[in-house]
Amino acid sequence: MFGRKTIKKKTYDRENLRPVLRCSICTGEQVAGFKNIHTGKFEEVMLIRSQKDLDLFKEMYEVETVAKEY
What we know:
Strand order of the largest sheet: 3-2-1-4
Order of helices and strands: EEEHE
Number of helices: 1
Largest sheet: 4 strands, mixed
Shape: flat
Strand content: 25-35%
């Protein structure tokens, strides 16, 4: 009952989207999401406040590496 919650796996279009961590130089804020490789449009998924949040994002979408953009 109070154990670890199971994480619901989600999918994304691996052919047209790539996982990106958008980072602000000024404030240090980080947002994880997906960038369309054709149009360059960024779609936000979740705010990253700690390494735990980033690990959750990677586990949810089954991603190994996330590129950083400033």
